[in-house]
Design goal:
Layout: H1 6-32, H2 38-64, H3 75-90, H4 94-125, H5 129-161, H6 163-166
Helix pairs in contact: 1-2, 1-3, 1-4, 2-5, 3-4, 4-5
Length: 192
């Protein structure tokens, strides 16, 4: 397909989004099986369902405009998923695996959000106001998912970074001699 006009560019982007959502919808349920954190597993399952819904909406839009959804590989998402699977396979630690899962999901959400933002602006420019609004709502949904992933990440980070914290053995800085104590006047912090 030659991209010589705005509608052709828009439908090329819809094909790209369709390919991306197809890959995400297939991958997330598999990945969620290796997750330890219950909230993260639930969010991954929800994101897979929403990816299927978005994929189906995109297919409907293309068919409505007499375009056939193509089966193609979305190279950027394929790369993110491939790198994510490689990293996940390299760790045996469930906390680290969950953190890596979150980081890779955030990358997917960020890429998808940029793509939906671009497609929404193209649809608006092409006079497809309803489609633009729906694409913009998908963008908002992806941004919200990123916030939810970051919330789970912030809960996991201390436990993943400090393995003793997992078992409740982590002492606070105040419990360690010489740590987090206020300096006396004219005293400087010693460095090692």
């Amino acid at each position: 397909m030659k991209l010589n006009c705005l509608p052709e560019l828009l439908f090329d982007q819809l094909h790209e989004l369709h390919a991306m959502e197809s890959q995400v919808a297939r991958s997330l349920p598999v990945l969620s099986g290796s997750v330890m954190n219950v909230r993260l597993r639930k969010l991954l399952t929800e994101r897979a369902l929403r990816a299927r819904d978005r994929r189906d909406w995109l297919a409907d839009q293309m068919m409505r405009h007499e375009r056939q959804p193509e089966t193609r590989m979305h190279l950027a998402i394929g790369g993110i998923l491939g790198a994510g699977n490689k990293h996940l396979a390299e760790t045996g630690d469930p906390f680290m695996r969950d953190l890596l899962m979150i980081r890779h999901c955030i990358r997917i959400e960020q890429h998808a959000a940029r793509a939906y933002g671009f497609a929404s602006r193209l649809a608006e420019s092409a006079g497809l106001t309803a489609e633009s609004g729906r694409l913009a709502s998908f963008l908002s949904e992806l941004i919200e998912a990123g916030v939810r992933f970051r919330s789970i990440e912030s809960e996991l980070s201390p436990a993943a970074l400090f393995p003793r914290a997992r078992a409740g053995h982590m002492k606070t800085g105040a419990d360690h001699p010489g740590r987090n104590r206020p300096l006396k006047p004219n005293q400087t912090q010693k460095t090692r």
